[in-house]
Design a protein that fits this description.
The protein has 136 residues and is of the alpha+beta class. It has one helix at residues 84-128; strands at residues 4-9, 13-14, 24-29, 38-42, 47-51, 58-67, 72-81. It has a domain at 4-82: Immunoglobulin-like, CATH 2.60.40. It contains one helix and seven strands.
């Protein structure tokens, strides 16, 4: 019954490895990929028909139909193609994290200096204005 012996996606990330009993897969591809490239092994006397393989940004559904004289099996691929804005957004987010991280170390230095100065002033005032008990 199984007409498709092996299946690989050459230009995307197939979340599950091909299994004879699995007919739906999720695939992620980079934003520069325009169609899925398949590598497959078929039983003798079988042929393949790939439909809806022009990928747009976002979610796409690509089907791969395998036929022989008596049967047909359809494999469905839910393909997610990243948009260029998403990739740039992640890069910009990472840069902002780096900037925020450097600012935090400066902030902590100022806090430590402020607390140290405050404690020093308290000690000085306690020494100067400490009342001494006079014994009679």
């Amino acid at each position: 019954m199984f007409m498709l012996k092996d299946l690989k996606i050459l230009n995307g990330n197939l979340e599950l490895k091909y299994n004879e009993y699995t007919y739906e897969y999720t695939v992620t591809v980079d934003n520069d990929v325009n169609s899925l490239e398949f590598e497959y092994v078929l039983d003798d006397d079988c042929y393949v028909d790939i439909k809806d393989n022009n990928l747009e940004k976002g979610e796409n559904i690509v089907t791969l139909d395998v036929y022989n004289v008596d049967n047909s099996i359809t494999y469905t691929f839910y393909v997610y193609k990243e948009s260029e804005e998403e990739v740039n957004g992640i890069d910009n987010y990472m840069k902002s994290l780096e900037v925020a991280n450097t600012n935090n170390t400066e902030f902590y230095k100022v806090q430590i200096l402020s607390v140290s100065l405050f404690l020093t002033l308290i000690i000085i005032f306690s020494i100067l204005f400490h009342k001494k008990k006079v014994s009679k």
